[in-house]
Amino acid sequence: MYGWTGKILRVDLSSGRVSHIDTSRYVPQLLGGLGVAAGIAWDELKPGVGPFDPENLLMVMVGPLTGTLASGAGRVEVAGIAPQQRPSRFSRSGMGGHWGPELKYAGFDGMVVQGKAPRPVYLWVHDGEVEVLDAADIWGTGTYATTVALRAKHGLRTRVISCGPAGERLSRIAIIQTETGSASGQGGYGAVMGSKNLKAIAVQGTGGVRIARPPHFLGICLNASREGMSPAFSSPDPRKPGGQPEYGPHHRTRKCGFCMTHCTHKIYMNVAAEGGSGASTAAQHCWGYDASHRAHIEGRALTSDYGINGWEVSYGIIPWLQLCRQHGLIDSVDGVEIPVPQKPIEYMRDCAPSPAEFLRVLLNIIAFRKGPLGDALADGACYAAERLFGGRGKPLLDRIYPRHAGQTEHWAGHWGPGGNIYWPWWLPVMLQWCVDTRDPANDSSHQWTSHVQFYLTQSGPYRGPFPLEKVRAVAAKVYGNPDVCDPAFEYDPSDTKAIPAIWHHHRGMIVDSLVLCDYENTRVFSVLSEDGAADTALMSKLFSACTGVETSERELDLAGERVFNLLRAIDIRNHGRDRKVDESTIGGFMYPGKDDGVVLDRERFLHLLDRYYELRGWNKANGWPARAKLEELGLKAAADELEAIGRLG
Amino acid sequence: MANLRKKAGRAGGVPKLPRSGVVKVDRHICLTCRECEVGCSLYHEEECNPALSRIRIEFNDFVPGFPSLYVCKQCAWPACYYACADILQESAILIDRATGARFIDEDRCIGCGACLRACPLTPEMQVVYDKIVDGRRVYYKCDLCKDRAEGPICVEACPAGALTFVPARDKRKRDG
After folding, report:
1. ipTM of the complex, rounded to two decimals
2. CA A117, CA A231: separation in Å to the nearest integer?
3. Separation CA A628–CA A636 (nearest Å)
4. Rounded Cα distance, A116 and A112, in Å
5. Which of A105, A154, A218 is the best substitution to test chain B (most B C-beta atoms within 10 A)?
6. Exposed end of chain A (fewer CB within 10 Å): N or C?
7. What tens digit of pLDDT does each residue of A235-254 get?
8. What is the CATH architecture of A251-404?
């Protein structure tokens, strides 16, 4: 087998039994990564399983391209029933770093962890072997101390993922942290680790990834565009990242493993964060508004070490607490005043910056579930609002959390974190929000929003390099419809919004399955090509040359659609997903867009949603896939099972 | 010594070798992505495997400091070359005409490890490694991708510009 290693590791922590799943049961149809996780979940996860039940599967998957020269090949996809989702449902979360490739080099296409260990353990995976080892001495420590301890034991090249004190206490916003800079954030999978008494997974491997056509693959990787997410960020020499890398004795620029693209982040070493576990390093990433640089870095170090979802804290919990204070529900956290702006908070940008002291106290009570407030907030604002202030904080969630489903609005032009996005570009993102199990920004929305916005001359205050005719020509080539990127079209014709929503969602599934990074896959526009279109067939070329399974761009898109429909089928069978749930998302967007002031027209959007279901081959009355669509995708078994429970569209 | 003299082509002297180019590393701007490692192994071994790479990166983000990059310095007086020539009738370490690279001919290598032991960078900064090919131990190290027209693959794969290829003629100039 090329690309894949052929084996998926299964560890049952209840019995300590280790077995293997043959990867070829699921590939090439489901590609790898998230696709294979969906396949396993469909076969094994029964309806009614909760996130903290031993029957829940913690799947940490890599794909055929992981650990290869393909840019962005350092990522991992985590899947399972996610506690952060409200209500909990099968979902996914990605993570960068160096852990995934190491698992591949150790000889596995992924790990499925099930059951619950009788006492705290960690897994030590090395070159095809796995040992379940006692974790008594690292249980209770932060992720940094855990990583350092396991490296001291197993060698410096050991890669570690672990959960912190938050995960051990089943905080629904607990993350799985790797090294200092990367984490599987949204979903609360750190708590799934904690519920299984699994502290960490340490991996080391000396094997390799076999490539079907090495010289060809090498050529594709080296010649792929590295121009970055947008022309705004591109450097004069697109082969090299823009700007000067920053470095000094205590901070430097770094990247995830196995990536050539433009994106970098800074790490700060020797951060003396009070309450952290000693070794303190912080990576600068998406993290909210802080009163000082110091607070910023310290907050990051603490979230990583405690194993808390920093995104949720800074863009969800803190703004919600500020809103609660404005409405007189709460004043302070553990004696420290909650910062609050003068004027009413309407968008994320209105929030007051957080001083370091406030962050320290807040993160501490969340990580250790201190007091009734910490205990409630440890489950994220959506769950906390039910328990705190007699439920009076619940309406305040509306602007932040679409569907109150656990993840903050992101990249859809409303609440705010993640950049500006203008009417009507947020309509396709809204469609993605409606049908997804989490915020689609992790794999599907970035591609659409950043590309369309940054390349088009007319979008908002951005002045992209491409005139409208050129954009229309690219849209005709990529989406098969020149009107897709034309700002003249809003709700009508519906195809102009439904097509990109679907197309990018499928690309997101492919990215999660191969497993690559959504930051540069799939690009739509390129300043380097003559006609302005990026090489959209890049992923299929990489996949074919790596695995030897000849796959055209169209066939790979179909595989993406297969993964998406299988995930939908799981959501329908296990969690009763239907159009009503999809529609309940709209309420989270019924206020003026933050950059354009446009208010959504609910009726017209519902028409758009109708067309979206039609294009997908789903029943527009209930949002369930029709048999014809599932069979076209080779998911006949799923169609049969859905029919048996009366949920076939 | 008889071998050495034969190689040198003049009695009694240590052969003067042509200078070599080198892959120069700047560990201060390395982003620790390790694309050089997989690029190297993909080109030389036809698989993506950092454990078979001729350039290695080590880093520890928990301790202040910079990553360490290990790659053969292609010495002007290559101890590995002389060590090999001392043992084998036909030395397994050869000098590439175009780049000057000191490289190991895997067909001739007998896996004795004399080159590794002779290397002045061993053991702190090991740049010569061994692998098993068809049940036989052979040693390998950086050969500057001498057969690749575009030059060393690691330099091309590096997104940070932390690696540069300095050809032999530039090196001589700089060294005076």
Report:
1. 0.91
2. 50
3. 9
4. 13
5. A218
6. N
7. 444 344 444 555 666 777 78
8. Orthogonal Bundle (1.10)
